[in-house]
């Protein structure tokens, strides 16, 4: 029996893998960066695994998670970024929390989604 190369099936697998690791649209990258910057400049504190961190430390942490997820092609939308990077610890599964001044503590998911809504309300859609 003659062995063949990878053929059509192999080509399809390679193309599917390439599509899986495609970068998100530039508009998504801009929104993610704007959210992280909003957190960095918020003056809020960010709780991760039971410890509170200042806004700069929180932003650095989210940037590292963002880079890790982007490298693996795991972010297609800003909402996915929030869900996969900004909601809970990938190690412990404990939810992240945010507190800002005298305001009640909220989940980071709530804070980031509200910040995204505010960002989108201020930013006209790109064409």
From TrEMBL:
Keywords: Signal. Residues 1-22 form the signal peptide. InterPro entries: DUF5329 (IPR035242). It comes from the Bacteria. This is DUF5329 domain-containing protein.
């Amino acid at each position: 029996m003659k062995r063949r190369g990878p053929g059509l099936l192999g080509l399809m697998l390679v193309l599917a893998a390439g599509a899986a690791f495609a970068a998100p649209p530039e508009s998504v990258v801009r929104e993610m960066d704007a959210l992280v910057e909003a957190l960095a400049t918020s003056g809020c504190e960010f709780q991760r695994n039971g410890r509170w961190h200042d806004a700069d430390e929180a932003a650095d942490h989210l940037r590292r998670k963002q880079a890790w997820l982007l490298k693996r092609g795991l972010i297609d939308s800003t909402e996915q970024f929030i869900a996969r990077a900004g909601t809970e610890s990938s190690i412990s599964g404990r939810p992240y929390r945010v507190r800002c001044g005298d305001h009640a503590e909220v989940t980071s998911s709530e804070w980031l989604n509200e910040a995204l809504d505010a960002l989108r309300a201020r930013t006209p859609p790109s064409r």
